[in-house]
Design goal:
With 276 residues, the protein is of the alpha/beta class. The protein is 37% helix and 20% strand. About 3% of the residues have low confidence.
Length: 276
C-alpha cells in the first residue's frame, strides 16, 4: 500500500499540547449543534451536499472531530473515514454507524494514493499557523484523492475574531481587544492560558487560500462563505429556531455565498479544489 512519503518521518511535528487540551474538553460538537453554531453546521452541510458526488462516494474526513459531519455523510450513503489527531475524537466518531476512524495527522495522512473520491479538511488548516504546513497538508489531500476528485477545506476568516468580539461585546475588554487587533494584522491567534475561548490558530485572508491549493497541485474551483453576514445580525439564534425563518436565512446566505466582496465578512470560508 502506498502511503504518505512523510508518514514515517521522525521529525513530523506533533499536535500542539494546547490544541489537544482544547479539543479534549469536548465542546466543539455541542457548539455546532446549538445557538448560532447551527448556522455554520447547516451551511457547511448545504454547500457540501451540492459539491460532493452522488452516494456512495468514499470520503476522507480529516480533522473530523467526533464525527458531526461524518454522521450525516454516512446517513446520506457515503463511505466515511475520519482521521483525527485527538484520541477522544477518534473513539467517539468510530462508534457512529457507517463511519470508521483512526488517529492521524493532516500532514502525513494514513491513506493510500488516489483512494478517495473526496477529502475534507473542515478544521486542520486553521490549526497550522505556518504556510508550509498548510501546503503540505493540502499536498497530502491531493495525493489521497483520486484524479478528478474533490478537496474541500475550511478556513477561519482574518477578521472573524474582531467581528465576533464586537458582536459579543468582548472587544471592549482591553486585554481581548489587544489580542484580537494583533490577529487582524497577521492572522496568528496565539495561545494564552488566560483566554479559554480558543487555542492556537491561523485566521486566513480568503484571497491567500487558492494560492495554497495551487501550490499543493490542486486546481482551484471556488470559494463559499459559510455564515455570510447572517451570523453578525442580532436575532439570528431565534431565526434559526423557527423553521420558516431558518430556511429564509439559509437561502439568503446561499445567494451571496460566493460574492467576492462579501467573502471576508463570513466567519468561515470553504475553498474547493480538484485533482486533475
Amino acid at each position: 500500500m502506498k502511503r504518505s512519503p512523510y508518514a514515517t518521518e521522525p521529525r513530523l511535528p506533533s499536535l500542539r499540547e494546547e490544541i489537544l487540551a482544547y479539543y479534549e474538553q469536548g465542546k466543539e460538537d455541542a457548539r455546532l449543534r446549538q445557538g448560532t453554531g447551527r448556522l455554520e453546521f447547516w451551511r457547511t452541510q448545504d454547500v457540501l451536499r451540492r459539491l460532493l458526488p452522488e452516494a456512495p462516494a468514499r470520503v476522507l474526513d480529516v480533522g473530523g472531530g467526533t464525527g458531526i459531519h461524518a454522521e450525516w455523510l454516512a446517513e446520506d450513503g457515503h463511505e466515511v473515514e475520519v482521521v483525527d489527531p485527538v484520541p477522544m475524537h477518534v473513539e467517539r466518531s468510530g462508534r457512529l454507524p457507517g463511519v470508521t476512524a483512526r488517529l492521524g495527522d493532516a500532514r502525513a495522512l494514513p491513506a493510500e494514493d488516489a483512494a478517495y473520491d473526496v477529502v475534507l479538511f473542515l478544521g486542520p488548516l486553521y490549526h497550522l499557523p505556518e504556510r508550509p504546513d498548510r501546503v503540505r497538508a493540502l499536498a497530502e489531500a491531493h495525493r489521497a484523492v483520486r484524479p478528478g476528485g474533490v478537496v474541500v477545506a475550511a478556513t477561519i476568516n482574518r477578521f472573524a475574531g474582531l467581528n465576533d468580539t464586537l458582536l459579543q461585546g468582548n472587544y471592549f475588554i482591553p486585554e481581548r481587544r489587544e489580542r484580537i487587533d494583533a490577529v487582524s494584522v497577521d492572522g496568528r491567534h496565539g495561545y494564552s492560558s488566560a483566554d479559554p475561548h480558543f487555542t492556537t490558530a491561523y485566521f486566513a485572508d480568503p484571497a491567500e487560500v487558492p494560492g495554497e491549493f495551487t501550490e499543493a497541485g490542486l486546481a482551484h474551483e471556488g470559494q463559499y462563505g459559510v455564515e455570510g453576514v447572517a451570523w453578525l445580525m442580532g436575532g439570528v439564534e431565534e431565526w434559526l429556531d423557527d423553521p420558516e425563518r431558518r430556511e429564509a436565512v439559509l437561502a439568503a446566505t446561499r445567494r451571496i455565498e460566493s460574492e467576492p466582496s462579501l467573502l471576508g465578512a463570513s466567519g468561515h470560508v470553504l475553498t474547493v479544489g480538484r485533482r486533475s
